[in-house]
Amino acid sequence: MFRPLHPKHVYICFLISFAFFIDPSSQHVDDVKKQQMREKVREMFYHAYDNYMTYAFPHDELKPITKSFTDSLSELGNLKLEHLPTDYNGSAVTLVESLSSLAIFGNKTEFEKGVLWLSENLKFDVDVRVNLFECNIRLLGGLISAHLLAIDPTNRLIQGSYDNQLLRLAEDLGKRFLPAFETPTGIPYAWINFKKGVMENETTETSTSGCGSLILEMGALSRLTGDPRFESAALRALRQLWRMRSSLDLLGTTLDVVTGEWLEYSSGIGAGVDSFYEYLMKAYILFGKEDYWRMFRSAYLASQKYFRYGPWYHEANMWSGKPTYWQLTSLQAFWPGLQVLVGDVAAANSSHREFFHAWEKFGVIPERYLLDHQMIHPTERYYPLRPELAESTFYLYQATKDPWYLDVGEAMVKSLNRYTKVAGGFASVRDVTTMQLEDHQHSFFLAETCKYLYLLFDDSFVAKRNYIFTTEGHPLQVMSSWHDKLPESYFSGNWTFSKSGAWESGASAMSMKVCPSIAPNSRLHEQHRESVCHVPDQKIDHKCWSNRDCGVDATTCRQRSCSEVGFCGLWNPL
Q: Which terms under GO biological process does the entry name (predicted)?
C-alpha cells in the first residue's frame, strides 16, 4: 500500500521534475503553445469578467444568456428583483472571487479599483440568510486572499494607499459567522443570517465538508487579526467531526449539528466530503500543526483502502467499509491534485486520466456518472463550469512537466469555448448529452477554472513562492510566522531531563528521584529538576489530541489539560 510522504517533503513534487531527455525543438514548441494558450485563457477570463461587471455587478453572479444577475449565494437567489430586501444589492461575490485572479493576470488597475469599491460599498449588516460554507470559501476566503496580495510588497498591486480595508471586512464577516458555532457539539449550523444570526427553527443538518472545511479561512483570519475566536471555533468543529469517525477512520456525508448523529452513512471523496480531506492536508502546510497531518494520513489511508477501485473511487458505508454507490462525480476530479501534494503522483496520474477520458467522451464532465451502469445519472447531466479537472491538471504538470498535461488543458479550453461561450459570458451546461445551456455563470469559473488553466500555461505568479490554494482557488502564502510556536516562557517549568541532560520520553521526576527546581530563568540546555509530582506531557512540544496526552504540572502539581487549539497547559481554573 502507498504510504503518504511526510509533510516535510510535501513540496518535493514541485521542486523536481521526472528525469527525461527533452528535445530543444520540442521544448520550443511547448513554449509557443503555452504562450498562445495563456492568451486564450486570458480572453476567456475577461469575456466572463467584463460581462459580469456590465450586466450583473454588484450582485452575486451573472446570467450570461439573458445578461442579468442572480444573488445565488443566499436564499434570495430565486427571488425576483422586486422581492429583494431594499437594503440588499448583493455581495459582489464574483468581484470578490475575481480579485486574486486579477492579481495573477497582472491587472493592477482593475485589482485596485475592486479593492476600493469593496472597501466603500460592501456591507454585511443585511437581513439575508446565507450558506456558511459557501460564504466562507467565496467571500471570506476571497477577502483574506486579496488582502494578503494587497500587502505583499513584491506584488505592488496597490498604487495608492491601502489601510487593511479588506481585512476589516473579513473580520466583520467572520464575527457574523460565530453564532453558527453555538451548538452542543460545536459543529456549526449550515445556514446563518448576516444580521440575526441563527434563525428560529433553522435546519440542524450539515455536511462533512460544510463544517469540516472552514479552518484555512478562519485560521488565517485569526492569524491576521490576533483574534483567536475564529480559528478556535473552526478547529473545535473539526476536532469534533474527527472524533465522530468510525473505527475504520471513515466519516459519513451528513450529520446533525445538535445531536451529533450521522444522517448519511455512505461516504466517499466527492460531494459532501471532498474538501474535508483537502483542508486537513492544506491546514498542515499553512499552520504546521502536526494534528492536521495525523488526521489526514489516517483519513487518506482509509480512503485508499475502502474507496479505491483501480483508478476509480466508489462510495462506501462508514461503519462497514462495504461499497454503496459506484459513481464518478465531477467534484472527485480534485483528488489527483490533492494526491500530488501528498506525493502519490502515480495514483494521481491514473485517476486523472480517467477523468479526462470522461471529458473527451462527453465534451465536458457530467456531474454524476454511474460506473456500474455505464450511464449518466438521469437527473444530474449538467456541467456547471467546474474547475476540479483543470486544478488537478495544473498540479500534475507542476509535478511532472509532462507536456501531455498541456494538451489536456488545451482540449479543455477548446471545449469551454465551443460549448459554453455565449455573447454575455460563459454558461453552464444543463445536459451534456445535448449541450443545452443553463443561464448561470458561477463565480468559481473566474476564481478557479480560468485561474488554474492560466497557471497551467503560465506559472510565473507562483514560481519560487509558497502558496496553497483554498478549495475556491484563493492563494494563501505559506509563512513561517503562522506555524505553531510556543512562547519562550512556556518552557521554563515543563521539562524533565535526566542527570545527563538528555530528554527521556515518558520519564517523570518521580521515577528519576530528582528534587524540585522552579528557577524561572533556567536555560533549556541546562539540567532541569522538577517536583516529584511532575508527569511530563506525552510530546516534547506539548501538542495534544486529548487530556490523556497531558501530564501533571511540575510546579503546582495540577493536572494539565488539552486546549481547543491542541496544546497542554493549565487551562482550567482552580
A: carbohydrate metabolic process; endoplasmic reticulum mannose trimming
